[in-house]
Design goal:
By secondary structure, this protein is mostly helical. The chain has one domain: MetI-like fold, CATH 1.10.3720. The chain is 69% helix and 2% strand. It is built from 13 helices and 2 strands; from the N terminus they run H-E-E-H-H-H-H-H-H-H-H-H-H-H-H. It has a two-stranded antiparallel ribbon. Strand 1 and strand 2 form a beta hairpin. Helix 1 crosses helix 13, helix 3 runs parallel beside helix 7 and helix 12 packs antiparallel against helix 13. It starts with 11 loop residues before the first helix and ends in an 8-residue tail after the last helix. The relative contact order is 0.13.
């Protein structure tokens, strides 16, 4: 017999959901509504005066070359973070899943980076790759590799991608490891008896069975790259040099708190939210069809 939970009081389920609904309303729906409202106005730098301009803030964005640059930088950055992060995390999960001795220690060490705040991650990697005193930068200079993320756009993008991937590896690793441990060993043993090589077993058995986990992490990593990497960008490159690492979420911050253009910042926030929603819908509509559940 299937056990079902029965609430004796009709209000109890709503009371249990109330804290989460309240947090969602305060920290998501309220700021989103405020951004939508501000996007139709022009405000003075110190607040107080508002002038309704309709869709002028949106039309001015699409005639701004800096905004287009931020859009393409965001696409490149999110694609690199998602692809490299998933590939490295899957490799680490496969290796950790095969370890017999001290397996718990390896898994614990791989989980630790997730506990580090994004701002701390940015400061850490900015220090390691600092052209003047950075340990890794000194080794690269000794190898004859020219490195300066403050002046070179490619170096700056490499720095923020490495920092963002390192921060998210632990999250991806946990899900991949759980997915690997849920695969029946009998399937792999039967394939090995039939003469399948380790690579073929992974390609034909392991990876297809991990497709639901991979799909979930793909969505999460793209949203992470769009929204949750603000602190990493702010503490490493501040969107520079030029606009080479000026992703959309950081451009929203600069427009509002450095240029004091709250109307344009609100419009950018709305567009960014719509882009992420559209990407998520596309992934669930088309990529989900290739997932084997």
């Amino acid at each position: 017999m299937e056990k079902r939970v029965v609430f004796s009081h009709k209000l109890l389920p709503y009371l249990l959901l109330a804290p989460q609904l309240l947090i969602t309303a305060i920290f998501f729906f309220l700021p989103a509504g405020q951004a939508i409202w501000q996007s139709f106005f022009i405000e003075s730098a110190f607040g107080g005066d508002q002038q309704f301009v309709g869709l002028d803030n949106y039309t001015s964005l699409f005639s701004n070359s800096t905004y287009y640059s931020s859009f393409w930088v965001t696409l490149l950055f999110s694609g690199l973070v998602a692809a490299i992060g998933l590939a490295v995390s899957l490799l680490l999960a496969v290796m950790a899943n095969r370890v017999v001795r001290a397996a718990g220690a390896y898994k614990t060490l791989l989980i630790w980076p997730y506990a580090v705040a994004p701002a701390v991650v940015g400061v850490l990697w900015a220090f390691l790759f600092s052209p003047a005193v950075g340990t890794l930068a000194v080794y690269m200079a000794n190898l004859g590799i020219s490195w300066n993320p403050r002046l070179d756009s490619t170096d700056a993008m490499t720095l923020v991608v490495i920092a963002a991937v390192w921060k998210q590896i632990s999250y991806n690793f946990l899900f991949f490891l759980a997915g690997l441990q849920s695969i029946p060993t009998s399937l792999l043993e039967a394939a090995a008896i039939d003469g399948a090589s380790p690579f073929r077993r992974f390609r034909t058995i392991v990876f297809p069975l991990l497709s639901p986990t991979t799909f979930f992490l793909l969505v999460i990593n793209i949203v992470y790259a769009f929204f949750e990497t603000f602190a990493i960008i702010d503490t490493t490159t501040q969107g520079g040099p030029g606009t080479s690492t000026n992703i959309l979420v950081y451009n929203v911050y600069k427009t509002a708190f450095k240029s004091f253009d709250y109307g344009s910042s609100g419009a950018q926030s709305v567009i960014l939210m719509m882009i992420v929603i559209a990407l998520t819908v596309i992934q669930f509509r088309y990529v989900d069809r290739k997932v084997q559940y």
